[in-house]
Amino acid sequence: MTRTRTALSATVKQFARTPVLVALLVVLPAYFVGLLGVVLPDSTVPVHVAGATTRTPLRDGMLPMLASLAAVMVTGIAGLFLTVDTLDADGWLALSGLPSRTLFAARAAALAGAALLASVAAAGVLSLLAVPERPLVFLAATLVLAATYGLIGAVVGVALDRLAGVYVMLFGPAVDLFLLHSPLATDAPAFALLTPGRWAGVAAMDAAFTANPEWGALGVGVAYLAVVAVAAAGAVRAAVRA
């Protein structure tokens, strides 16, 4: 426990050395949702959730998806930067006897905190503009999705440098949530079942627009998060030992 606390403290200090990133976790989702909430028109659009189609103002139809997307993007980039910045140090710490699982647990805990900050900021501003039908479920689903992409960002950080990784963590979630699983779109391709947005993302949109969210999708989203966590632990451990 002491080792884990020490590693977590070091991780938090590493985040603190990048104050712009810490600020973005709160400011960017709030700014993104708040700005679009002002500029989006009031024209009505069809929204497809829970096997039904309803019509809603464009702002109300877009903002929940954009809130989740903003939280996901900044958390994914946080995971990327954390891995890129600490991988060499983790190698030395592992050589000194600190178990790699302890290092990963500390990094994952820090990413969970980052996901929570970004999700609360996005959901908080969303609630001022377009209140979800089930706000707490929406927040929980967004948190699961953001944490999943935070760990995906950690895996990307093992394979790519900052610049290439940032492009991946910007375009990947955008394609997943904005194109494949947008509540304004229909008939997602078959491969979309493999993306995180199909599960926690769909649960978040159902919670935004209906009083009966898709609990099964949220459960699969949590399982998806667990699988990604195992994969990320393996990738980071292999990189540390390399």
- The helix tally amounts to 8
Mean pLDDT: 84
Specify Rg, calculated over alpha carbons. Answer: 18 Å
Given as residue ranges, the uncertain stretches (5+ residues, pLDDT < 50) are: none
What shape does the CA trace take?
elongated
Percentage of residues assigned to helices: over 70%
Write down how many β-strands occur, each being a DSSP E stretch of 2 or more residues: 2
Give a structural overview.
- The protein has 242 residues and is mainly α.
- It has one domain.
- The protein has helices spanning 2-16, 19-39, 58-95, 100-129, 135-159, 162-180, 200-209, 215-241, and strands at residues 44-49, 52-57.
- It has a two-stranded antiparallel ribbon.
- Strand 1 (44-49) and strand 2 (52-57) form a beta hairpin.
Features:
8 helices, two-stranded antiparallel sheet, 2 strands, mainly alpha
Secondary structure layout:
Blueprint: H1 2-16, H2 19-39, E1 44-49, E2 52-57, H3 58-95, H4 100-129, H5 135-159, H6 162-180, H7 200-209, H8 215-241
Antiparallel strand pairs: 1-2
Helix pairs in contact: 1-4, 2-3, 2-4, 3-4, 3-5, 3-6, 3-7, 3-8, 4-5, 4-8, 5-6, 5-7, 5-8, 7-8
Describe the structure in brief.
The protein is mainly alpha-helical.
